[in-house]
Amino acid sequence: MTDGVRAPCTTLTPTTQACSAGSYASFASPSPDHTPDSSPVPHQHSGLPRLGEVLIGQGLITAGQLEEALCLQAKWGSRLGDIVLASGWVKSLDFYSALACHLGLDFVNLMEQPVKDFLLEKEQYGDYAQYLYLPWRRKDGILWIATADPTCPELVARWGSKPDVRFVVTPKFDILWELQRVGGQTLSRQATYHLARFDPERCARVVVTPNQKRGFLLIFLTTVLSFVLFPVASAIWLNAFLNFFLLLSFVFRTLLCWMSCGELICPTVSDEEVAALRDPDLPVYSILVPMYREPKVIPILAAALRRMDYPRSKLDIKFVLEEDDQETIQAAKDLALDATFEIIRVPRSQPKTKPKACNYAFRLARGKYLTIYDAEDKPDPDQLKKAIVAFEKLGEKTACIQARLNYFNAEENWLTRMFTLEYSLWFDMFLPALDRLGVPIPLGGTSNHFDMAKLKEVGGWDPFNVTEDADLGLRFAAMGYRVGVVNSVTYEEANSKLGNWLRQRSRWIKGYIQTWLVNMRHPVKLLQQVGVGGFASFQLFIGGAIVSGLAYPVLVIPFICWLFTRTAMLHPFFPPEVLFVSTLNLALGNSLLIYLSMLAVAQRKNHALLPHALTIPGYWLLQSVAAYKAFWQLIHRPFYWEKTTHGISKFTRAEVARALSAVR
Amino acid sequence: MASASSRVRRSPVPFRRSARSGAARRLAALASLAVALLIFDWTWGQGRDSSQRVVAILAAVTLSVLWWWHLELASLPRGWSAALALLISGQLLLSILSVGATSIRFSFGALGCGVFVYAMLWIFGTHDRQPGLWPVASAALLLSIGFIAKPAILLACVVASILMFVGERNRFGGMRDFALLLFTPLILFLLSVSLVAVLWAGTPQRAIQSLLAVYQGPPGWSVASRFALLIGESGNLCLIVAVLATRLMEGKTGSPDLACLFLLLSVGIVCVAPGMPAPPTPMDLSVTACAGAGSLVALEPPGSFLGRTVVFAGACAAVGIRLIG
Questions:
Q1: Which residue range(s) make up the domain with A124?
Q2: Residue A351 domain flag
Q3: CA triple A449-A454-A455, angle to 5 deg
Q4: Cis amide leading into A351 (omega within 30)
Q5: According to the model, what pLDDT value does residue A511 have?
Q6: How far is CA B140 from CA A587, B137, B164, B184, in A?
């Protein structure tokens, strides 16, 4: 072997300790007719020490720790090595070195002996990440494969019978690091342009298609012309249209809330169903945590993830960080988390958006299911299990399960209270009812749990859409998949500063406009794909959010002007009938939405917020400011991702302090 | 084995028969409903305006079919559903039409009262079965459109709602939050309507006058004539007595029955009390009784043959008194 490669150790004396479940390779037994010399498959004969013995022999773990690991192995059904790594007792490098000993293979440190770039095939990057291997070197006609899991059945099936292939053991982090070093740019290009190539009609890379441009121009010119020729009639028609649309939107939302209050919406998953799950049957679950310049809040999620009621050895947690964000990378490293946590560095490229980072990272994920959390999220501990039960209950066509979101700093100030009222309404009332009606659900930004295969099938997130989550929910619906809602909550940090809130909200509304534009490129096709109910719900829900944001000041300001001045200037444009209808609609619509917000917080038993719901019309005015900003940005900087700063709440500081003590 | 296979062989036949007979019974029920409505039109329509007859027959069809469907959902057998739907909807419609003999506006007012009372009692009934946020929210939203009924009926329903839900105030975070949940839509809607009315009418006084004018009954009714009318409307009282007796007999009485009695009593008192602005008329009381009876029947249809027969007899008596009167 070349220098830098440690030969397998054979000097350990097997102990008498019962270690029957201590084999790393519990499911891949080599064929007996393969001799160690001619096969890359690791040796599993009785002459070699068991992994637990090796780890104790090398002083990496104690006998007590081994016993604990074996208990966990019996409970979780994971391999001993995964449990030891997830427990954080052993450094990754030491563990894989011991594993090489156990399997009678050589160990290689890829940081010292990097892979030969030309050996890696671009088409295989997904497989490399999934099965944790890389073609390392080719020498004397022998291909050396560096792997963190030499007993992986897929790896054995592919390479095991080839006489000119040998395995060496290496840490999984080194594999991911090398894969990103060699294939980072390719993966980044795939993350950015895959959807644009695979399904350009559903990608927001082109903001407005030529046909849409012609259509909008025609509508604009017709409107201007009609206002010039028939100003009063045009004002009446425009007013009537806006009022009618908003009235429909209010009624639809009321219907959704009314459904959610009653027996019509049952909890998706009960505690008994969660308790009935067997840990050994649980699959590997990937968790992506995309972050940018958020070093302070990482401990919150790290602590929350450690509290998760899920076998740690089956978690594949990835902090997805931008390459140039050294501060956050360092903060993640400083936490010295166990091997369950990985750091993925996204190469610098445009657009620098969260969906692009997610697209990049999910190609490196190994789970059957995948979810996304923000750095400051605190998911309910049983959320992953509930999502798995929900996937099983809702059937094969379910591609995604959305958990409910809410805020842990609701009581901080008026803005956070309003934000909490809004989120309670959205996630506790609207989404479960949409789910019940079987119409497309716009996903929330985090805590959406995906079936990995289906996520790959639809091409991942749209990196050019700044509310990629809402877009993805509709894309799933258009492709015949279902999005469900689960009765589990993730608590986040509500924006407590106005500027920060405006940045976030304008991005969301810009994304809604992008989503609406993308889906309305072919309205008839959309109608066929999602049905009449889905189409109407899309218009009233997504379209309603855009129109109400933009139309609110148009309807309110003239009314207030007229109320205080009784100016005759507006009389021609607001004949009594129009004024009557629009005023009534404005007053009743506002009243209705105030009450729906109250119902949402009452449902959550957050009664302290009930009186504050009366002030929510002021919040809608702020939303209108954000809507106009979003509209302006869509024209000038359509793909610009306005960053929301997290960790500015005083509640968050307390949360971070608590989390740090838990993590350390 | 033998019995299992024989079951397998036999099972499709009754199924097909049942499906066929179900469809046939449905068609027969609908046909009898249509024939009955035509007879109703022929008997009631003598000497009336043809446009009124068209509106009446359309309203009767809509009401009967909707209520028939509601009764079927409540698992009442199809034949009974059709019979009760025909009789009680017909009776409600006759009451409304007799109110509207002077003006179509009064018909709509009476219809508003009927729908409002029906829905309110139905919500109280669902609260009995499943307490929680849904009944309170539904009652609150319904109260907010209480302007479709007369102020006295709205007020009676507000009081009934408080009595009905106040026991659960702690579930909603105390008295203040409970009041907010129950009355916010009503208060906001009243404020909105008042604002629009003031803007429309110019001054608050004119706004109040115009709002109350909406609820005015036929002019020139003295207290004595109201009493006389009240006796004339006794058909619906027969109906409600039959329904309440059946529920009592079957042990199904609960808070909706008390609420129904409370509504009838309060509306009855206000109806004959002098000096009330926009008082409910005896016709409104009659409509309230009919809608209340219908709601109680739909909430939990009579389970026994005797119960159904008593309700059916009450409905026949109500229609008979109306037609004879």
A1: 5-184
A2: no
A3: 60
A4: yes
A5: 94
A6: 17, 5, 12, 8
Beta carbons of A594 and A616 less than 8 angstroms apart:
yes
Q: What is the DSSP letter of A492?
A: E
Q: Residues in chain A whose beta carbon is closer than 8 A to a beta carbon of chain B? A: 254, 257-258, 261-263, 563, 576, 579-580, 583-584, 587-588, 590-592, 594-595, 598-599, 602-603, 605, 607-608, 610-611, 613-614
Of residues B133, B176, B192, nearest to A591 (C-beta): B192
Interval A73-105: pLDDT, tens: 999 988 888 899 888 888 888 999 999 988 888
Give the C-alpha separation, B75 to B70, whole Å: 9
Both tokens of B270, joined, read 């206000």
Q: Where are the beta strands (DSSP E) in A440-510?
A: 448-451, 482-492
Cβ-based contacts under 8 A for chains A and B: 79
Average pLDDT rounded to a whole number, residues B152-170: 89
pLDDT tens-digit map of A272-296: 999 999 999 999 999 999 998 888 8
Closest chain A CA to residue B131: A262
For residue A166, how many other CB atoms are within 10 A of its CB?
A: 20
Quote the tokens at residue B202: 């110019």
Percent of chain A with pLDDT over 70: 90
At A201 the three-state DSSP class reads helix
Mutate to test the interface with A, among B199, B203, B210 (most CBs of A within 10 A): B199
Report if residue A14 sits inside a domain.
Answer: yes
Closest CA to A184 of A364, A422, A21: A364
**Cβ(A631)–Cβ(A546) below 8 Å:** no
Could you tell me the CA-to-CA distances from A371 to A172, A358, A361, A475 in Å, in that order? 21, 10, 12, 17
Number of compact structural domains in chain A:
1
B313-317: list long-range contacts, CB under 8 Å, 24+ apart.
B313/B242, B314/B238, B314/B239, B314/B240, B314/B241, B314/B242, B314/B243, B315/B84, B315/B87, B315/B88, B315/B91, B315/B239, B315/B242, B316/B87, B317/B235, B317/B238, B317/B239, B317/B242
Domain annotation covers residue A168 = yes
Instruction: With residue A291 as reference, give the H or E element that holds it.
Output: strand A285-291
Q: Do A579 and B199 touch (CB under 8 A)?
A: yes
Tokens for A242, please give them.
Answer: 């806006």
Provide the pLDDT for residue A625. Answer: 94
Q: What is the mean pLDDT of chain A?
A: 85
Q: How many CB atoms are closer than 10 A to CB A466?
A: 32
Chain B CB contacts of A262 under 8 Å are 130, 132, 134, 138
Whole-number Cα distances in Å, B38 to B26, B33, B42, B323, B325: 18, 9, 6, 15, 20
No. of helices (H) and no. of strands (E), chain A: 24, 13
Q: What is the ipTM of this complex?
A: 0.74
Q: Supply the CATH number for residue A140's domain.
A: 3.30.300.160
Nearest Cα neighbor of A581 from A324, A288, A247 is A247
Q: What is the pLDDT of residues B9-47, one digit of tens each?
A: 333 333 333 444 455 555 555 555 556 555 555 555 555
Residue A148: name the closest of A173, A178, A184 by CA.
Answer: A173
- Give domain limits for chain B: 28-324
- Supply φ then ψ for residue B131, to 5 degrees: -65, 160
In a domain, A70, yes or no: yes
For A201-229, the pLDDT digits (tens) are: 999 999 999 999 999 999 999 999 998 99
> B137 and A611: CB-CB below 8 Å?
no
Give tens-digit pLDDT for A425-462. 999 889 989 988 889 888 888 999 999 999 999 999 99
CB atoms within 10 A of CB A290: 25
The tokens for B268 are 């009855």
Q: How far is CA A226 from the centre of its chain?
A: 46
Scanning B207-246 for CB atoms below 8 A from A yields none
